[in-house]
Amino acid sequence: MKFKNIYIAADIEGVAGVVFYEHFDKDMSMLNYELLHRNRVLLTEEINAAARGAFNAGAEKVVVHDNHRDGYNIIPELIDERIELIHGRAEQHFSMGLPHPDLDDNMDALIIIGAHAKAGTVDGCTPHSLAHTESESGQIYDFSEAAISMALAGDCGIPCIFIAADKATVEDAVSLNQSLKYVITKKNYASQVTRTISPLLSRKLISSGVIDAMKNSVSEPFVIKGPCTVRVADRNPSVLWPAKPKKCNTFTDALNSTLRNVPWYKPVDKIDDGWRYPDSLRSAPDTKWNIPGCDK
Question: Are 59 and 111 in contact (CB under 8 A)?
Fold first, then answer.
């Protein structure tokens, strides 16, 4: 099969050299800032390596979705000029029913870079997030974010052909697709203690691995046969939301339904970022800077 249009789903915890992700703003210091920036550089360069491999193997388009936290981690000015980047606030595209914007039947293959282990994984890197899926036919899965991406792609008829992540995450993904090509970037002893390969080596292996996948992959789309339900967890895999999930015909529909019924969900028309005028919740944009006392 000829893979021309490639979609890369990017996270950060599974990148070589990353042990844990950035601290929140309230904990920011020069050290934490340097950690945040360093992790972003490491992620960006693994994305570049995957894209180079794809283009060298004949891809005509590579679209990358920056899918970690606020979706603003990949450094735009450092990416390969041929990449098209989707980035920005995750709560907005989730509320619009687009877990991976533009992941549709116009794409030929999915590649996953930097994925992390699902919640409850003892030997996974910063393990969190889990989607508990049950189909009417009796299939039961506990999905990592990587497996979620594989299933979303499967609903569009798109195979996942390559993944680069920590050992636990790769093994989990391969259990769903034995033909999946992969690079193991590190193994974890605990959630934030890891034995990593060199980032330079990781990039070489990712580039060559993507070329191999593009030329030799026999992966089929991973499809959850509906109707099915999805419940999700964050850190604790035994606490699932919502209590009564809606049964839907596809995994994508079930996931979107559930994401609208979790404690942290906020509809897009309730996300007041102060920029969307005239549909902002405010009647008009502020006339003063948002700094106390600046109008005096």
Answer: no
The DSSP secondary-structure symbol of 133 reads E
Written as six digits, the tokens of 5 are: 């249009």
Count other C-beta atoms under 10 Å from residue 216's C-beta. Answer: 11
Phi, psi angle pair for 54, to nearest 5°: -65, -45
The string of pLDDT tens digits covering residues 103-144 is 999 999 999 999 999 999 999 989 999 999 999 999 999 999
Instruction: Supply the Cα-derived Rg of the chain in whole angstroms.
Output: 19
Strand, coil or helix: 163:
strand
My answer on whether omega of the bond before 278 falls inside 30° of 0, hence cis, is yes
CA atoms of 68 and 47, how far apart (whole Å)? 13
Domain 5-118+144-222 has CATH 3.40.50.10780: yes
Written as one string, the DSSP assignment of 192-248 is: TEEEE--HHHHHHHHHHHHHHHHHH---------SSEEEEEESS-TT--B-SSPPPB
Angstrom distance (rounded) from CA 135 to CA 250: 9
* Whole-prediction pTM: 0.90
- What CA–CA distance (Å, rounded) separates 259 from 265? 7
- What gap in Å lies between CA 244 and CA 247, rounded to an integer? 9
